[in-house]
Amino acid sequence: MKIALVDDEQIYLDEMAKFCRQFCEENRLEIEITEYSDGDSFLCSGEEYSIVFMDIYMNGSDGILTAKKLRARDNGCILIFLTSSMEHMPEAFSCHAFEYIIKPFTPERVKKVLMDALSLLPQTSNYIEIYSERRTVRVSYENIVSVMTDAHFLDITLADGTQLSSRMTMPQFMERIGGAPRFIPINKGIVVNSDYITDFENNCCILENGGRLPIRVRDRFKIEQAARDYNFAKIRGVQRSGKGRAYDGRR
Fold first, then answer.
1. Of 196, 231, 192, 195, whose CA–CA distance to 215 is shortest?
2. For 228-248, b where at least 16 C-beta lie within 10 A, e where not — what string?
3. pTM of the entire structure?
4. What is the C-alpha to C-alpha distance for residues 91 and 94, in angstroms, rounded to an integer?
5. CA-CA to 165 of 20 to 30 Å: which in 59, 83, 101, 230?
């Protein structure tokens, strides 16, 4: 996510940046934050952002005027106003504001607004940090194809064919990904990313890379249903963003 913070008071820029980073760390999201001390420098940057936090009361161009100019060139970003007064709220929402946050703000309020905003954005890449071969590798969820237990290690296969071996248990892996629905346990010590499933055949899960992994036979229908449920949910997101793949259970 690219986030812009526009405020003429450094204390609020610092606090908002801190809360945004905390939110993204907790949700394992990539983030890029840019701070602006006034509306004019923000507009002159010409940059596009996923989310813009805009103070209403600023020296120079105030937040309302800045927002109107922003909307003239970018009607897609999520605009969130920061204010110490509700006085200008009707005018603020005429700029298609998503939300507002009253100063002084709390981390709980900022994180709640960010969570709501996140649901409207195209799918954002979450990531996990994996320690492998004496180095820490940051891997996005979408690039993980499968994870398999091998004694006290996990063998992690990536979309480009790379294999990572990490001293980690499967419960530890599942805990660190926070129950991401794309990852489905299909057998003892085997988890697959639903994005890469092409079919189920002869009690095996068939993957895009040609891999065939055995599924737990007694749970076959539950596993297939989990893959379908994930992809139905994903299709709704695809209809908003216009990209992605889906398993239809027939290929």
1. 192
2. bebbeebeeebeeeeeeebbe
3. 0.56
4. 5
5. 230
